[in-house]
Amino acid sequence: MRIAVVDYGAGNLVSIGRALETVGATVTLARDGAALVGADALVVPGVGAAGPAMVRLERHGLVEPIRGWVRSGRPYLGICLGMQLLFDGSDEDGSTTLGLLPGRSVELRYAPTLPHIGWNQVERRRDHPLLDGIPDGADCYFVHSYAVAPADRSIVVAETAHGARFPSVIASDAILGVQFHPERSGVDGLRLLANFVALVSARSAGDPAAAALAGGR
Amino acid sequence: MLRRRVIPCLDVADGRVVKGTRFVDLVDEGDPAELAARYAAEGADELVFLDIGAAHERRSTLLDVVERTARRVFIPLTVGGGVRSVDEMRDVLRAGADKVSLNTAAVADPDLIARCAARFGRQAVVVAIDARRVVAEPSGAAAPAWEVLVRGGRETTDLDAIAWAARAVELGAGELLVTSIDRDGTQTGYDTALLRSITSRVPVPVIASGGAASPADFVTAIVEGGADAVLAASIFHRRIHAIAEVKAAMAAAGLPVRASREPAA
After folding, report:
1. ipTM of this complex prediction, to 2 decimal places
2. What is the total count of domains within chain A?
3. How many A/B residue pairs have CB atoms within 8 Å?
4. CATH of residue A146
5. Which of A33-42, A46-55, B108-117 has the lowest mean pLDDT?
6. pTM as predicted
7. Domains in chain B, please, with CATH?
């Protein structure tokens, strides 16, 4: 099972690559659209502001291949900024992002400190196989100032409070997103990545158990 | 609720963990990746590596240590020491660090903070401030003041530490690592007045550093100093106190802490 981790020149890819390998995936770094061919799933990490990230994705010729990937219903896991980029745009710099899910990234409201840095609780709003085996309220590691405000609230799987509550896990068919860093969230983060790998494997094998990634939510 | 973090700090020189008193008299305390794995298993919420080695052999040794650590430890890693440019920060992040701390280079070139924040986001930019109390003239102001030191606490500047903290945040620092040079390595407790002076001025999280001796000191840094996270080195390296003891004291004081679910190393 091969996962393409999108590498557009920002941040730490060692951790996410190593974490995915630890849970049994083969990882390749995708620096252009061609590198997505043959992958079973796409993981888009990223930290920082949306505008510069979109510029770099564009420069690497990755914007349209990623849009095509998601629109064809193949599995996508966005981490932190990689989740925010799925939506229409970001209030941080007014940038336009991938536009694959309706909604925007907005600054955390009523936050006692910004950025929101550290371990915080992921509170489940509904069940999803991505969270199998992870206790409700598990602590995961966050580093961000903005979070998504989806137009369709039904995609919110879990929320976290720092001041106001914000979506910390979303799922819309095969489009998955987490605001925290599973590769930096200890055993629970590794479990989430293992769940993702299992979902992708089941889907690749045509297993009906993969319904969560194909069709119904 | 956001947890208050306990952060072991590993001072690294020539690829080994060292610790001295007031940045001198260094003693070898082990392999960084080994110690990092032990701390992760013991419930550390994050790790800080500060490279205090000589500049000429620093780069490749540090990147190797960061990469070896990032491959086996799944908690966040902040790395500092000698990073002077956006490109050097990129290299450290790509080796596996989540955040980079800037100190001397940011004092010499404050705009470096803005350039790094623009490139990697402010959440990846930690500004480390080494502060020393200024002894007031007998006729001087009553309020305490702190000056900024650079080059590992060896060199003074004309910067006021509180003003520099505010300026660093304006420029793009997403977090501050505030070390009391007076307290560092002395095990006499954190300088809570220094911490409070900074945490009351800036919106970003502040990591308290320098002087931890007992679990109660960590509680005081948070409750009285307003720190978001507490950092210590010697008391953990020498097993004077375990991370779990510190967290138990924090929990007993009503502070939110993360219950570690890591398997034993």
Report:
1. 0.91
2. 1
3. 124
4. 3.40.50.880
5. A46-55
6. 0.93
7. 5-252 (3.20.20.70)
